[in-house]
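Loading example: each entry is read as two labelled lines plus one structure line.
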Amino acid sequence: MVRYKAIIAYDGTNFHGFQRQQNARTVQEEIEKTLTKMASKRIEIHGSGRTDAGVHALGQVIHFDFPYPRPLEKMRFGLDTQTPEDIAVIEVEEVDEAFHARYLVKEKTYQFRVQLGKPRSPFTRFYASYFPYDIELAKIERALPDFLGTHDFTSFCASGSSIEDKVRTIYEASVTWKEETQELVFTFRGDGFLYKMIRIMVGTLLKIGNHRMDETSIPAIIAAKDRNLAGPTAHPEGLYLKEVKYD
Amino acid sequence: MVRYKAIIAYDGTNFHGFQRQQNARTVQEEIEKTLTKMASKRIEIHGSGRTDAGVHALGQVIHFDFPYPRPLEKMRFGLDTQTPEDIAVIEVEEVDEAFHARYLVKEKTYQFRVQLGKPRSPFTRFYASYFPYDIELAKIERALPDFLGTHDFTSFCASGSSIEDKVRTIYEASVTWKEETQELVFTFRGDGFLYKMIRIMVGTLLKIGNHRMDETSIPAIIAAKDRNLAGPTAHPEGLYLKEVKYD
């Protein structure tokens, strides 16, 4: 057996998320079907983590064990062209059998796109969230650094999550304005993120930018460990898993 | 009756083009259905010209006569929100009854996006053409100015077109390289374009950039008035009607 690591991108619009499940089209299932055909033997893949229905990936990382070695570009091209068009295989490399796409994650980067203004672009209706209300960018910029550092992010985790340890470290929390497409593009980089955490952070930041919450309220919300104090969960179509880093 | 001019955008992916036809979903039909409901009376629209199946618009122009005057933002908002999500209504203005969206066109601008490199992005599979072969941009840049000016473009018109006068004037023919998305973005501006003309021009330019046709061959192809001498027709998903200008 040879272990391969692959960097993949996918348009999440027509997937019920990354993780395999009964009676629903998922990214994991499509890639496993293709690899199983290529190897003539059941192959399972492991991703760096799940993504929800409608969430996209520019640089999701997976690993899998293949029964025999194959030239890397042949493996990449075979996987890329035999999976459906909404999955792209960007890079394949051979890794040590100790490598694990989920357990060894060091850092993840997500982006979140929000289109402002009217009308909603027909070209980004599946690729950016939409917020047609007043936004004061300076307020969002004032609030963003309060997410940095190591905190218990219980207030920014969807209720129902079974994960016990809700302490995460955020290294980057920033926003840029793209005039051409009238979009806010948020970037969040950290050692890991809780269930729906980025979508709740963005929902809260939009509430702040829209004057419905004070721009200094993030530290108190974090301290309270109460999901009810944070803002709403932003829609999945704006979210992109951009990069996963390992040691 | 009050005449309105509207600027609209649409994602052409799920339309069989702009123009109304039997048993196929078209942009014209969707907008007419909405206007007819708004006016409780059959309303017809006129576009600046057709676009083919899969072709997009950032700034298509239409006009229509409405039985009574309505505040412009109300009209825009009503049309925008009551048409399906793949149509956006950007602007509505009241115009003189002499205005006609097709007959009075002075200038049209089209863009054409081509993604180069591997793999094909899952996010642009409906929004850019794909050319994964070698391209020498300098050759395309050398050939582009040969389209400028007034010429009989018979060689760049799909056979079967019923239009007799194939003389058109091109004011701008340019290309830029977008590093971030690995895309060539062509811009063509002229007093009008023949059936599939831009897609044939792009197909020919890609053949030149790929070393399969000399970069000085455009003038001879134009002079020959023979469609067989030009390159193939590029795919519709890369084409955008960007702007229509009137006197």
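The beta strands of chain A are 2-10, 45-47, 56-66, 87-95, 105-116, 129-131, 149-152, 167-178, 183-190, 239-246.
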